[in-house]
Each structure stands twice: as structure tokens, then as C-alpha cells.
């Protein structure tokens, strides 16, 4: 994961993070609380954003070193270790990438709330998913390995998605291990399932069978 610091009320900056830094509510999902102002460039901006998160969302603020690179989503499906007759049978689906090529030059390369949910927003149309992602073979293998390790680390079971960032040196950082990502027909998980040759109904049945 990126280097980080968790801020609760009256916490001070420890000075251990390199800027730019992204600040977000620690207990939200779906990019709630993430907008263009989430990226901060110095300590004053950091503490102002932390105060905003604490007041607006009434929860701690997570500050992470911002990985300005490619954003990858690795969907996983299967029984995790110790939860079936075939330990370790969880597998990765084709890797998806959120591309930022169409974003305005001054816009941060992030999947903000606006980019994810506000369909009339230019940001919504500028963050385009590509699946399968075009990656060097060694990067793809490493992303799949890390996704499975992250899934095991948090006890993820049946299905899920691990989101990552890749920096300019092809180093991968886990942003989130999501145990219940959206599985509607147009969601990222189902995009990866479709790229693997699965149908929508078949994938839902597979998840139900795993749960049983």
C-alpha cells in the first residue's frame, strides 16, 4: 500500500509522507469524499482537507502518498483458503484499467465521485475502462499475485475486487480490497467476468454456488 497516516481529531502531521498526498474518508466507498481537492501539495492543504473530512463525514481521514500512474482493478472469484475442499482455489479475472487519457490536463488523474457517478459530467466520460488492460506480461502476473494475496489477507471470499495503482517504475500499490463490489451488469466486476467468457447469469450463479 502507499505510505499513509490516519488522522483523528487533534492528530498532527508526522512529516513522514512525501507530497502530493491524497486525503479521503477512511470508512466510505464509491469515491465518496474524493474530488479534485482531495489531492494536496503541502502540509497546510493537508491539514485543511483533514479538517474538512473530520467535520463533513464525522470519521477519520486517511492520507496516502499519491501514486500518479495507471489505475488497475483485479476482480477475483472463488473459494478462499480454508473455506472449501480446494484451498486456494480463488482466481483472478482479466485485469481492467481505468484510463485517464481524456481528462483535462489540469485535472487530477483520479476516479473522483463525479467521474464515477455523475453521468452528465465531463469527468464521467473522460475516465474510460479498458478490459482486458494492455500490460507487460510481468506486470500482469504481479498484479494477479498481489490481488490474491490481498484477498487472503482480508479474508475475502466468493468474489471481490482489488484496486491498485502502478507508478512509473511499474511498482504496484494496493488501494483497496473490496469484498462486495458492484455486480450490476455494467459494473467493473461484470466487465471482467465477461472478458473471461462468463455470462452475467452464469457469474451470479457461480457466486451463489460458492456461497452455498
Descriptive notes:
By secondary structure, the chain is α+β, with helices and mostly antiparallel strands. The chain is built from six helices and ten strands, in the order βββαββββααβαββαα. The strands form two sheets. Strands 5, 6, 7, 8, 9 and 10 form a six-stranded antiparallel beta sheet that branches. A four-stranded antiparallel beta sheet has the order 1-4-2-3, with helices on one face. Strand 9 and strand 10 form a beta hairpin. The protein is globular. The relative contact order is 0.16.
Radius of gyration: 18 Å
Helix-strand topology string: EEEHEEEEHHEHEEHH
Strand content: 15-25%
Structural class: alpha+beta
Instruction: Describe the global form.
Output: globular
What's the main sheet like?
6 strands, antiparallel
Terminal CA distance reads 32 Å
Low-confidence stretches: none
Q: Return the average pLDDT rounded to an integer.
A: 93
Q: Give a count of the beta strands, DSSP E runs of length 2 or more.
A: 10
Amino acid at each position: 500500500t502507499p505510505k499513509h497516516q490516519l488522522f483523528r481529531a487533534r492528530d498532527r502531521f508526522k512529516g513522514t509522507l512525501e507530497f502530493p498526498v491524497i486525503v479521503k474518508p477512511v470508512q466510505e466507498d464509491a469515491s465518496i469524499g474524493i474530488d479534485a481537492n482531495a489531492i494536496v501539495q503541502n502540509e497546510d492543504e493537508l491539514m485543511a482537507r483533514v479538517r474538512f473530512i473530520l467535520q463533513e463525514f464525522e470519521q477519520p481521514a486517511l492520507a496516502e502518498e499519491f501514486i500518479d500512474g495507471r489505475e488497475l482493478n483485479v476482480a477475483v472469484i472463488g473459494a478462499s483458503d480454508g473455506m472449501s475442499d480446494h484451498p486456494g482455489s480463488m482466481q483472478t479475472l482479466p485485469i481492467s484499467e481505468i484510463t485517464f487519457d481524456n481528462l483535462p490536463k489540469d485535472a487530477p488523474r483520479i476516479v473522483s465521485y463525479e467521474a464515477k457517478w455523475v453521468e452528465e459530467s465531463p469527468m464521467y466520460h473522460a475516465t474510460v475502462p479498458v478490459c482486458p488492460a494492455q500490460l507487460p506480461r510481468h506486470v500482469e502476473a504481479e498484479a494477479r499475485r498481489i490481488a490474491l494475496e490481498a484477498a487472503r489477507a482480508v479474508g475475502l471470499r466468493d468474489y471481490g475486487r482489488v484496486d491498485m495503482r502502478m507508478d512509473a517504475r511499474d511498482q504496484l500499490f494496493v488501494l483497496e480490497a473490496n469484498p462486495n463490489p458492484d455486480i450490476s451488469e455494467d459494473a467493473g466486476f461484470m466487465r471482467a467476468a465477461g472478458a473471461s467468457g462468463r455470462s452475467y447469469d452464469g457469474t451470479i450463479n457461480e457466486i451463489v454456488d460458492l456461497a452455498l
